[in-house]
UniProtKB/TrEMBL annotation:
Statement: the UniProt record of this protein carries the keyword Plastid: no
Biased composition (Low complexity): 19-30
Molecular function GO terms recorded: alanine-glyoxylate transaminase activity; pyridoxal phosphate binding
Name of this chain's protein: alanine--glyoxylate transaminase
UniProt source species: Linum tenue
Length: 479
């Protein structure tokens, strides 16, 4: 027994020494990076063993001219000098000149497995060589296999899927199903949310930037449970009371449902305050409504869990998904219980391309890659590491008001006054543009347009995270 205790003490002592050594190495690396930045030494992108094929297509100017002439003027692009992306591999993108960029945006939280992941590409090519589109009026195993695999990733009795082509379609369908199932019309949504750009989802969206002057009825918007800008800080139950007030004072006391994102993507990577979703789900179900989780951006391992709602300890009645579901293929889905799914049999409901075999073959490959490449664990580990590094930048630069998010869905909000939380819009655009010039692509969002959205492919490494943060650090030091 004494030998066992002594041995345990030796092991514990060795573990502590190893941890101390690791901390010392990390501190030395951090000091070296800060010295380089102070000496105006540009950060170096991690090596990557791949060379893109020579590009022989049209130039940037030619593409811009065609866009202006033949595409809707509503289609905007990032950066003062738009970048022409012609090839991608895993977490990297390449322009027409073969220049490599670190992709910190992931096609707007879409390319979870990595650009042109060989397993996903092989599944798509193999399927498209056999048959591209038979319609779901005929049998094909691809859609059934994917539905079965997707059901295995869902909690509770969420076992039935209906496939769409986008997140907007999925959310439109989910809201209609909630209304049909309950017999009520009133839906509750959250301010600052984004759920799509069709009539119903535009109504559910809680930002004026994404709304046109068209009929948007039957939606009640409640307080955003925003720990940074909200009136109740991180007290989720206080925000939840606003939902109960809406039920009591703005409806008959019965509602169709409540739709929310666990982490608002377009809204600026805002995670719901702790305790909010459990309290709201209880209130909504008491009023006869269904709870819809919009997992279009936070799903498929991005947050370190398979689904964003898992971190809040709730199980929705309906889950909507898109983006990461097909790693860039046009694919979305509504997953619900068999009982709720029955409402669509009351009439004929059909989606021509929903369940397309090429898209669903890609979806099945995505689920396999998430498990095979340990993407949940990687998103959690690398995401936590990068968030820590970004939080350290917040201590260094007064302009950073908040660092938030979970896994590889991280937001950095810039403010010109920390006390007043005044949005630093011009600085956000400037740093975003300068980071592109140094080889790092990230997005922006938030109601005020002052939040960096960092949603890279989930194969991101700690070395990639260091490069991204170092480039941000360098450009912050030049403001």
């Amino acid at each position: 027994m004494q030998r066992f205790v002594a041995r345990s003490g030796l092991l514990e002592g060795g573990r502590r020494r190893a941890q101390s050594l690791l901390r010392s190495q990390q501190q030395q690396q951090k000091a070296a990076r800060e010295k380089e930045i102070a000496n105006d030494v540009l950060p170096k992108m991690p090596p990557f063993d791949y060379s893109p094929a020579p590009y022989t297509g049209p130039s940037v100017d030619e593409i811009l001219a065609k866009r202006r002439q033949f595409l809707s003027p509503s289609m905007f692009y990032l950066y003062k000098k738009p970048v022409n992306i012609v090839e991608g591999r895993m977490q990297y993108l390449f322009d027409e000149g073969g220049r490599r960029y670190l992709d910190g945006f992931g096609g707007i939280a879409t390319v979870n497995c990595g650009h042109c992941h060989p397993d996903v590409v092989d599944a798509i090519v193999s399927q498209v060589k056999r048959i591209q589109h038979p319609t779901i009026l005929y049998l094909n195993h691809a859609v059934a296999d994917f539905a079965e695999a997707l059901a295995s990733k869902m909690p509770g009795n969420l076992k039935v899927a209906f496939f769409t082509n986008s997140g907007t379609e999925a959310n439109e369908l989910a809201m209609m199903m909630a209304r049909l199932y309950t017999g009520c019309q009133d839906m509750i949504s959250v301010r600052n949310s984004y759920h799509g750009n069709a009539a119903g989802t535009m109504g559910a969206t809680g930002q004026r930037s994404w709304k046109f002057s068209v009929v948007q009825s039957g939606i009640h918007h409640v307080l955003n449970p925003d720990p940074y800008r909200g009136p109740f800080g991180s007290d989720g139950e206080k925000y939840a009371k606003d939902v109960q007030d809406i039920v009591d004072f703005a409806t008959t006391g019965h509602v169709a449902g409540f739709i929310s994102e666990a982490i608002q993507g377009v809204g600026g990577i805002v995670e719901a305050a702790p305790g909010y979703l459990p309290a709201v789900y209880k209130n909504v179900r008491k009023a006869g409504g269904l709870c819809i989780a919009d997992e279009v951006q936070s799903g498929f391992a991005r947050t370190g869990n398979m689904w964003g709602f898992e971190a809040h300890g709730v199980v929705p009645d309906i889950v909507t998904m898109a983006k990461g579901i097909g790693n860039g293929m046009p694919l979305g889905a509504v997953v619900t219980t068999p009982e709720i799914a029955e409402v669509l049999t009351r009439r004929s409901y059909f989606n021509t391309f929903g369940g397309n075999p090429v898209s669903t073959a890609a979806g099945l490959a995505v689920l396999k890659v998430i498990d095979k490449d340990n993407l949940r664990e990687n998103a959690s580990t690398v995401g936590a590491y990068m968030k820590d590094r970004l939080t350290a930048l917040k201590e260094k630069y007064e302009i950073i008001g908040d660092v938030r998010g979970r896994g590889l869905m991280i937001g950095v909000e810039l403010v010109s006054d920390r006390q007043k939380k005044t949005p630093a819009n011009a600085e956000t655009l400037h740093v975003l543009d300068q980071m592109k010039e140094m080889g790092v692509l990230i997005g922006k969002g938030g109601f005020y347009g002052n939040v960096f959205r960092i949603t890279p492919p989930l194969c991101f490494t700690k070395e990639d995270a260091d490069f991204l943060v170092d480039v941000m650090d360098y450009n912050m030091s030049k403001l």
